[in-house]
## 1
Amino acid sequence: MSLTTVHTVADLRATVAAWRAEGLRVALVPTMGALHNGHISLTKLAREHADRVIVSIFVNPTQFGPTEDFGAYPRTLPDDQKRLDAGGVELCFAPSVDEMYPDGFATNVSVDDAMTTVLCGAARPGHFDGVAQIVTKLLLQALPDCAIFGQKDYQQLMVIRRFSKDLNIPVEIIGAKILREEDGLAMSSRNRYLSPEERAIAPTLNRVLAEITTKASSGAELGPLLAKGRQDILTAGFNPIDYLEVRDAQTLEQVDETVTKPARIFVAAHLGKARLIDNHAITPIDIAG
Ligand code: AMP
């Protein structure tokens, strides 16, 4: 079955209704396009859970701040369609801004939990309101059996789990592991912003996270580890660092001294025009056994 692309909610719903009439299971993979192998890995995981896979491509204006890269964000629909077709995806949903936010649109979705005020929530005010708004719409438009989101955006995944539970959205939310380049850099559409020199520096983030993860999982004190990590990231050429923090894997509450339960280390830092994010799981060795 080759890829079909639709641009309206009505066409999306008609396609899903036809599949439902055949008793097929449906998965949705929301993206902003400029697809890379990380996105394609989500479609493979989607395939393990469903008979039909939808990938949405929409650069959502409401999740960008006024000085952020909404205008510059890469838009590569023909190339994305080729990748999706080669990856065996059945449907691409690529709506316009007017289709998603028609005249008179007036509804916000806001997650009133401390987890939205830290990390990217602190660095990008309003970002998670925009994410919650668009993901709620996409889930209700497609009403898939499941939707796949990458742990690359771990905080986003936690926020999505929160509002879909709170709003009783009948869609299973599935997290997918982070796909990396061979040198460890987490794949991202924003890696396209990097010059060759910056691209050579970028894997520092993953290296620093890996080093802290190893030491923190054996019980090392976090203060000195994070101080050294910050220094290493700045010395490599990143500036500024938005955050380098260890937080509880579920609640995203800050972990101050040592890691005694499942945690995560998170980083966001600027390199040239790119703001890169990454994270690793920290499992204390007495739990990991
Ligand atoms: P984006 O297009 O950047 O909004 O990402 C769309 C989805 O792909 C989100 O659920 C991301 O977490 C996920 N994603 C982005 N990069 C990666 C990656 N390197 N590995 C796994 N998932 C990713």
Note: Residues 145 and 243 are 35 Å apart (CA to CA).
## 2
Amino acid sequence: MSEFAELKNDRFLKALLREEVDQTPVWMMRQAGRYLPEYRKTRQQAGDFMSLCQSPELACEVTMQPLRRYPFDAAILFSDILTIPDAMGQGLFFAEGEGPKFRKTIRSAADVDQLPDVNIASELSYVTDAVSVIRKELNGSVPLIGFSGSPWTLATYMIEGGGSKDFRIAKQFMYDNPEAMHLLLEKLASAVIDYLNAQIKAGAQAVQIFDTWGGILTPAAYREFSLNYMNKIVDGLIKENDGRQVPAILFTKNGGQWLEDIADSGCQAIGLDWTTDIGQARARIGDRVALQGNMDPTMLYASPQAIRKEVGSILQSFGQGAGHVFNLGHGITPEVNPDNVAVFVESVHELSAQYHA
Ligand code: CP3
């Protein structure tokens, strides 16, 4: 009997543990989002993005929306990585069409010292409540992924006060105040551990750490300021819940040159963006961890024939056997035609069966 017996579809969890599956499992980063008209409608009902995240019922509704349309092999909690800095009192808001912003910024060692010690698990009970509601609604159909940002990626937003083209302020802070930066990352790593463990206890069956901006660092700075803290998080995670292993996925965008180091973190899988050949990545890391990825998200604007061909090339590059979770190399973008997502998901399932004898 399968380790995941009560799950009707356990391909995703099995592939993360490099166990054999009948077809390669697939999900999509940002699978609940603005490319779906039903998402835009629910978001409008909620009023704004944070109200959507803070209502467990609405967060559950948008988590389920892509699963009603497509046979994805996993659901991902609907929330955002910036809930942690918000719970630390930084005042997150989303200006229409401008992305995330913070009312407060971290610009000095004193700002880091003054960051309050908050009980993340209780401050973010709206997130763990959403996890419970979603697990009930999924009813064992597919596993639920919980997530968090990496300490480095969260720190960039907190220092800059929002997104940035070059993260000049965050990098200058790191270069000029490495000790304060380490203290900030330490506080964030401990918050992330509490947050992910609370999600796991509430029912998240795998977790992903989004290190969206680790790839803008030098190799030395990546190890010191990003990977180092993800290692601590992986060490601090609950490894087993409900008698099952809880796999951890580390996704560093543009981290292709550091795969060996990432594999050493103790994670079960590495998320790959589209700039690394997945077959070459597999040859480098062998069977140490599973790989997740890695179609260029922009491919979803191409024709159904081109999408199917690209899915086939990625499957062929990975090759025979276990240890691949299909995904995009980064999140789906808002202008994609939802019909093309159906082509993507069906192509993965149809074309992958031949690689699982
Ligand atoms: O994958 C999923 O479907 C789960 C939901 C999810 C969201 N954000 C919902 C969201 C996840 C996993 C995230 C993670 C996230 N948030 C990351 C890391 C992943 C990545 O894409 O790199 C980052 C950097 C953020 C911070 C953030 N939140 C940004 C930069 C934005 C603006 C994005 C944009 O394109 O405008 C958000 C808002 C956000 N988070 C939206 C969604 C669906 C769009 C908000 C809206 O409805 O207007």
Note: The CA atoms of residues 151 and 189 lie 6 Å apart.
## 3
Amino acid sequence: MSTIFKKIIDKEIPANIVYEDEDFLAFNDINPQAKVHVLVIPKKEIRNLDAATEEDALLLGRLQLVIAKIARQLGIAEEGYRVITNINGNGGQEVFHIHYHILGGEKLPVTLK
Ligand code: AMP
């Protein structure tokens, strides 16, 4: 089932987009947990890492390189940042379209989401 992130991909609802290419989109989190908090998603609808298959291997590998590229573009790479993906209930996943949080721009506490 489609989520609010699909609507952002389709430009049906606005988002502060920081990166877009044919396969990926990145935008500022609406409820930032750090000075820089960007969500990176593939345009392909995959529920989460638990639902990914072998077919997604290349896409998800490329996604990691895109995350690193975006972090460099945001100017946070050298000082450092954190990448998180939440999976299902215990992981705290709220939006069931696979996404990776980029958190940075400041020293992060160990327990930050
Ligand atoms: P998760 O808990 O990992 O599923 O994270 C979902 C994230 O999506 C949360 O950090 C929300 O603040 C963020 N979020 C939800 N709706 C939007 C939106 N319309 N635009 C930007 N971020 C959103």
Note: The mean pLDDT is 96.
## 4
Amino acid sequence: MAKVVILSGAGISAESGISTFRDSDGLWEHYDIKDICTAGCLETNRAMTVEFYDKRRLDLADKEPNKAHRVIAELKAKYKDEIAIITQNVDDLFEKAGIVHEDVVHLHGYLTKVECEKCGLVYDIGYKNTQDSYNGKCPTCGSEKIRPFIVMFGEAAPMYAKLNHEINDCELLVIIGTSGNVISVDILSSYVDKTILNNLEPSFAINDELYTQVLYKKATEAIDEIASDIEIFLEDRA
Ligand code: NAD
Ligand code: ZN
């Protein structure tokens, strides 16, 4: 199991032009989060929910990874078994930076995938609208009940078990671009000896006194220092 865990949130993709929850602009502004991100919204508000994630999926097509994704991809290639990449993001920017999909733990789902509610098949539709892929029908059972492969607030998040598993064995936890509102990073950090926190600014949901090192700057500006700390840590314990 990995000794270094890199846990990221929306902030790491902000410089690639994907908006975070906080500085909501564009896409997010036209929707009320509770109508499109909460358990049950597929029953009560299906068309708008599917449309919202369709728009976000199409929006992803021309987005490029930034320096933070790329440096992390290089580290992962060099120290494959020592580093776990875990993200709250549903975008594919780590994958575009060269990390194989199976090596990125996506806690909240993955935007280019959809799921058949009838037979449970999860399949990748790239940057298409749900309706434009297999005529909006499941390629296995033909059902038209296709949902975004996204964990809504209040739904079970099966990949959290993987996060907890990795934290058990983690010696250096690196947190990049998350406000700590969805996942309590303070609690995670309490299990780990050495912790690095990188955000643009302090968050009400994070007590930064709990962290070994705190970097309030853009992820692309912090990443060289973070990478060097990770390398020194891993070389020292080798
Ligand atoms: P958040 O919006 O609550 O917080 C973003 C954090 O990133 C803030 O702490 C902010 O200081 C920091 N930040 C902003 N720009 C930064 C930069 N350039 N460099 C470093 N840090 C920066 O995001 P969250 O904590 O990830 O939680 C929001 C939820 O929204 C998650 O569950 C996630 O799945 C979802 N989400 C995902 C995406 C995506 O996939 N790219 C985008 C928006 C929201
Ligand atoms: Zn099906």
Note: The longest strand covers residues 109-116.
